[in-house]
Amino acid sequence: MLAVQNLEVGYGQSRVIQDLSFQLGGEEILAIMGRNGMGKTTLLKSLIGILPSRSGSIKLDEKEISSLAPHERVRGGIAFVPQGRMIFPSLTVTENILTGARGAIEQSVWDEIYAVFPVLHEMRKRKGGNLSGGQQQQLAIARALISDPKVLVLDEPTEGIQPSIIKDIAKALKEIRKMRKLAIIVSEQVVSFMMEVCDRALVIERGRFIHEAPREGLDADKVKALLAV
Questions:
Q1: DSSP state string for 38-57
Q2: pTM of the model
Q3: 170 secondary structure, DSSP code
Q4: Which of 58, 72, 101, 109 fits as disulfide partner to 68, beta carbons 3.0 to 4.6 Å?
Q5: Strands 55-60 and 2-11: what pairing?
Q6: Contact status, residue 93 vs residue 126, Cβ threshold 8 Å
Q7: CATH for the stretch 2-228
Q8: Domain ranges for the chain
């Protein structure tokens, strides 16, 4: 569904992502693990087009998107849930979700979102700023889903979320994958969440992948050691 080849991304004169390549299968959940400052967010922002890549290829469903603007990539089928959620606090839950829409929304799409996140239906008229952190995270995911993506990209969705809600988010992502038949990339530092949700994990350090394994072959202690270095 997504193929990245020899990607290079940076800020000014610095190179953050260096000659990086990976593929994402259809309906696969891929976790990208790494310490702060190792390139996770830079990589995800380059996939969505917020940061332009200096070189390399990004193909979404076999179509080259590396030269497209962010809104064009969204139209092509990639959606982004940013770190920190970035919902609109003065808008209602429904209005927040609608900011991610690309046109008319079928009732079945609303039904699917509320089936995964029933609390959003209960609070659909409440201001986004009055929701808890976990509820705001669910809202940010719902806003991304309303665009009917082929690939959902999430940047550290467990940040600032209490442990009980982290489990709910892991469950929701698996339900979304099954319901919408999409692929998911999630950057993360919480190993337990990664082990719960992913099919495969990559560990990034200084803009390069240093470890890869399917969930069945993952050594959680090794991953924790790599993240602790």
A1: SSHHHHHHHHHTSS--SEEE
A2: 0.92
A3: H
A4: 72
A5: antiparallel
A6: yes
A7: 3.40.50.300
A8: 2-228
